[in-house]
Request: fold
Amino acid sequence: MIKKINKKHQMRDKSERYRYNIFLIGFMGSGKTTVGKLLAQEYNLKFIDMDQKLEKEFQMPISKYFEKFGENAFRDAESNLLKSIVKKENLVIATGGGIVERKENQKILQKQNLVFHLLTNIETGKSRLSKEEIDERPLWKDQESLQKLFDRRQGLYKNCSEYEISVIEYDAKQVVKMIKEQL
Reply:
């Protein structure tokens, strides 16, 4: 199910939809990458997975970068990448789950026209990740901390998005169809 949650986002002319970027935000395992790739294919747009782009730039997995340089250094790089992406057009962007952690990123996302929050729960998110992906995410090891992080971020995602899509009972193709109906 999809619902419009923020009317404060500026109105757009549907005839100009391709002049805008489509952002997918949400918790780890919500399907941002999978949905983003399908959506980009559907509209013949370029797809950017911010985490993958950063890993390529770092030449190491994000978990190793976190370990070596700390979360602040990672969030700096993530913010810089977001700032460079919003200057471009005709992209589908899967953000990292923590993009909403910084106020400056929240402000940037709030100014965008098409931001979709892929709403999931921890169980569904975990079921969509491979064992390797879960092992690379230290936050998944401590269930109590993970739940607190999940709960805290939900309000941040909602505040930054124009639409919220509950992806718990839908596959990626169904989610793409729901997004397309809003474009």
In short: The domain at 18-180 is CATH 3.40.50.300 (Rossmann fold). The mean pLDDT is 86. The longest helix spans residues 143-160.
